[in-house]
Amino acid sequence: MTVEPARSVPSLSVPAPRSTAEPPAVPAAPPGGRAAWLAWSIGVSVYVLAVIHRTSLGVAGLDAADRFGIGASALSTFSILQVLVYAAMQIPVGLLVDRYGPRKVLLLGVLLLSTGQLAFAFSSSFGPALASRAVLGCGDAMTFISVLRIAARWFPAAKNPFVAQLTGLVGMGGNLITTVVLAQALHSEGWTPTFTAIALLGVAVFALVALFLREVPAAGAHPVDRVVERPRIGRQVRACWREPGTRLGLWIHFTTQFPGNTFGLLWGMPYLIQAQGLSRAEAGGLLTLLVLANMTAGFVFGRILSRTARARMPIVLTVIGATALGWALALAWPGGHPPMWLLVAIVVVMGSNGPASLVGLDYARARNPVERLGTASGIVNMGGFIGTVITLLGVGVLLDALTPEGTAGYPADAFRWAFCWQYVPMVVGTLMILRLRRRVMDSKP
Q1: What gap in Å lies between CA 245 and CA 436, rounded to an integer?
Q2: How many domains does the chain have?
Q3: Can you give the CATH number for the domain in which 141 is found?
C-alpha cells in the first residue's frame, strides 16, 4: 500500500494591527548655544553674589576684631561657622536640586544670603553677628551646585568640565569685587552702609532669576528629566558614596581647596599686615593677585580638561606639590620674613587651588548617573570646606596659644608655626587620593 506524503498546509499569517501611538520620543542631547549661555549667565550671577558675601569677612577681619572686641580664635569662629554650615548643607542642597530643580534652590539661596548679610551689617555684638554668618553660609551653599546642574542640563557632556571651571573663574569675579571695592568702601563709608549695600544687591539678582531663568531647554529634552522613580534620600546618598569616583572627588576637593580658602577667607590679610609688615594697600594687592591667578588657572585648566580627561590627576598632584613646596620655603625662611617675590609666588600657586578642586567634581560627574548629579556634587563639594574649617580653627587656636599675653597683634613666629598646621590636612588628603586613585582606575565607569 502506497502512502502519499502529507501535504503541507500553508499557514495563515494575520498581519499585526498598526499602532496608532507614536514611538516614544528620544531625549535630545543638551543643545548648547546662546540660550544655554544665557541660562548659565543668570545662574552664575547668583554664584558671583554668593562669593562676594562669602569673602567679605576676608578684608574685614581686623575691622571685625575691633568692632566686636574679639581675638583670633573668636574671629576665626565667624569663618569656621560659615564654612561649616556650607559644608553641612551640601548633601541636603544636592537632594533639593535633584528633586525641585536649581531655579527654586537659587531663589531660596539669594533670600538667605541677603538676610544674613543685612543682619551682619547691623550687628554690634559677637552673638548676633555669628548667627548672621551661619544664615549666610546656608544661602551660599545653595548656589554652586545649582549652577552646575543648570550647566549639565544645557550643555553637552564634553563641555561640562570647561563650563565648571568657567563657573569658578567667573565666581572669582565676586572675590575681586570684595578685595578691590569692599575693602575701600569699609574705610570710606563704614561698616553698616557697606554691608547693607551688599545685602541689597540680592534684590536685583532675585528678580533676574525669578523672571528670566529657564533651568531646562524644553520639557523632556534632556535625559536628566527621565527620572521615573525618585529614590529615597538614604538610598540616594548611599549610592553616591559607594561610587569610588565620588569619594576620590571629595578628597581631591578637600586637599586642593583649603590653603587658598584659608588665606583668602580670613588669615591672608592679618598674615601679610601683622607678620610681614605690609601696608593694607600692599596686602590688598596680593589678595587681588590671588583672585586673578585663580581666574587664570580656571581658564587654563578648563581648556585642558575639555580636551583630555587624562590630565585630571597630574593637575591635582602638581597643585598639591607646588602649594606644599611654596609654604615650606616661606615658613622656613630665616626670621620668618620671606622676600616679596616668594610671597607673590605663593599667592600665584594658591590661585590654582580652587580650579584644581573642581577636578573632583569631574570625577563624580563622570561616575554617577544624571539623576544623582546634585547629590554627588554636594558630597564632593563638602570636602574643601571641611578642610577649610579644620585649617581655620587650627591656625586660630595656635595663634592664640603662641602669642604672649599683652602683645599687640600676632608676631611673625606665631604665624610661622600656626601656618604649619596646613600640612596636617594636606598629608591626610594626599594619602587618601593616592589610595582611591587605584580603586577608581580599576572600577568600571
Answers
A1: 8
A2: 1
A3: 1.20.1250.20
Half-sphere exposure of 211 (CA within 13 A, CB side): 6
- The DSSP element (H or E) to which 240 belongs, if any, is helix 233-242
Helix axes 340-350, 280-307, angle to 10 degrees: 40
Q: What is the mean pLDDT of residues 158-169?
A: 85
Residue 18 covered by a domain: no
Q: How many CB atoms within 10 Å of residue 153?
A: 25
Q: Please list the helix, strand and coil fractions of the chain in percent, rounded to the nearest 5, in that order.
A: 80, 0, 20
Residue 167, SS3 per DSSP: helix
In a domain, 26, yes or no: no
Neighbours of 167 (CB within 10 A): 25
Q: How confident is the model at residue 28 (pLDDT cuts 50, 70, 90)?
A: low
- Cell numbers linked to 103: 531655579
Rounded-to-integer distance, Cα 372 and Cα 367, Å: 10
Name the CA radius of gyration of the chain, rounded. 26
CB 264 within 8 A of CB 392: no
CB 261 within 8 A of CB 390: no
**Which residues 6+ apart lie within 8 Å of 380 measured at CB?**
246, 249, 250, 252, 253, 360, 361, 363, 364
Per-residue burial over 63-84, b if 16 or more Cβ lie within 10 Å, else e, is bbbeebebebbbbbbbbbbbbb
Burial (CB < 10 A; 0-12, 13-18, 19+), residue 288, is middle
In a domain, 16, yes or no: no
Tens digits of per-residue pLDDT, 272-328? 998 899 998 899 889 889 988 988 998 899 889 888 888 999 999 999 999 999 999
Report d(CA 143, CA 132) in Å as an integer.
18
Note down the domain range covering 239.
33-217+230-442
pLDDT greater than 60 at residue 445: no
The rounded Cα 85 to chain-centroid distance in angstroms is: 13
Dist. CA 139–CA 89, nearest whole Å: 9
Cell numbers 556650607 correspond to 86
What is the pTM for the complete model shown?
0.75
Is 82 in contact with 136 (CB distance < 8 Å)?
yes
Residue 9 lies in a domain: no
Q: 436 and 252 in contact (C-beta within 8 Å)?
A: no
C-alpha 42/C-alpha 46 separation (Å) is 7
Q: Is 108 exposed, middle or buried (0-12, 13-18, 19+ CB in 10 A)?
A: middle
